[in-house]
Amino acid sequence: MRGAETVVLGIESSCDETAAALVTGDRRILAQRIASQEAAHAPYGGVVPEIAARAHAEKLAPLIEAVLSDAGMTLADCDAVAATAGPGLIGGVMVGLVTAKALAMASDKPLIAINHLEGHALSPRLADPELEFPYALLLVSGGHCQVLRVEGVGRYTRLATTIDDALGEAFDKTAKILGLGYPGGPAVEKLALEGDPRAVPLPRPLLSSEEPHFSFAGLKSAVLRASESGKHRPADIAASFQQAAIDCIEDRLARALEKMDEVTALVVAGGVAANRQVRQSLEALAASRGLRFVAPPLELCTDNAAMIAWAGIERLQQGASDPLDIAARPRWPLDPAAEPVRGAGYKA
Ligand code: KG4
Ligand code: ZN
């Protein structure tokens, strides 16, 4: 361990972005590249796991070569190799993890298996050196919608989760209903700018309920009915959906904060954290509670390898490394002690 001089190679391949990055102990991103598979999945309206795994297998090695070359480094200059080991689409995760194992073995460097959700959860600390534990985290991505108290590296208490769809999933389904294609979140956000957020009456599932959990399935069905009625402009549906989703987040998050022990800041991470309206509403919520608000820059919100390399740095600083026979995990909750939540489905 070389403190600020430490360099970790990070690898991300859990969904539809193949990514590699080199990050230092003093938070410098020396190089990072992302190969998006958007075009390969677009005709299917969502991520096809088999296509994703094959694309990772083709793209990853050249991408790693490219980031090393961008930084003018070789593997010998790195202190460890960190890769997402789950949760995610298992074929892709295996490609990244096995690649990391091979590199770690060949270069005699430690392997660090990263929980992708921990990558998102710690990404705000890569962006903001002043962010101290414990902080309240809203983690909103394509597969997850959770409120956690982040107590330290590897130490999470989950206060809320979704009982059905994740927030990113709701954005993606709304995009599909409105014919905006894939990926949906950014397209819905853009179209919503031209619409009236009060034009279409939509439900706010679980609003004011005692437990701070989320639900978006009913909202999605209401979006479908509004669209099929033919009575509304797509821009009004997009704006009204986004407003309903934001109202739910504000209400549920406020409830979770009431139940949470003291924190230093309110933090948002994950792909939906790239949404400007969501960020604005959370900033206001934080201000009303006298909390500092921290959101990573947009490029660190959606899937990337810099956050995986950074989580590797944080774990390395704790003396962690993983054995070469560590398994890829399709499911890997941040708080394994959290009670499963009764609902339409169970999301870790
Ligand atoms: O974290 P992420 O890149 O991948 C997962 O780990 O799931 O999150 C992707 C999700 C997708 O559902 C995408 O539609 C959503 O984040 N997303 C957005 C925006 N950018 C990405 N949702 C709303 N507004 C955005 N600007
Ligand atoms: Zn993610």
Sum this structure up briefly.
By secondary structure, this protein is an alpha/beta fold. Helices cover 41% and strands 18% of the residues. The strands form 2 sheets. It has a 5-stranded mixed beta sheet with strand order 3-2-1-4-5, sandwiched between helices.
Quantity of strands, as a count: 10
Main sheet overview: 5 strands, mixed
So, CATH architecture of the largest domain?
Answer: 2-Layer Sandwich
Whole-number mean pLDDT: 95
Order of strands side by side in the largest beta sheet? 3-2-1-4-5
Would you tell me the structural class of the helices and strands?
Answer: alpha/beta
Question: Regarding CATH, which class of the largest domain?
Answer: Alpha Beta
Q: Uncertain runs with pLDDT below 50, 5 residues or more?
A: 344-348
Q: Describe it for me?
A:
This protein is of the alpha/beta class. It folds into two domains: 3-122 and 300-316, 2-Layer Sandwich (Nucleotidyltransferase, domain 5); 132-295, ATPase, nucleotide binding domain (Nucleotidyltransferase, domain 5, 2-Layer Sandwich), CATH 3.30.420.40. Helices cover 41% and strands 18% of the residues. The protein has eleven helices and ten strands. Strands 3-2-1-4-5 form a five-stranded mixed sheet, sandwiched between helices. Strands 8-7-6-9-10 form a five-stranded mixed sheet, with helices on both faces. Strand 4 (80-86), helix 3 and strand 5 (111-115) form a beta-alpha-beta unit. The protein is globular and about 60 Å long. The protein binds 5'-O-[(R)-(carboxyoxy)(hydroxy)phosphoryl]adenosine and zinc ion.
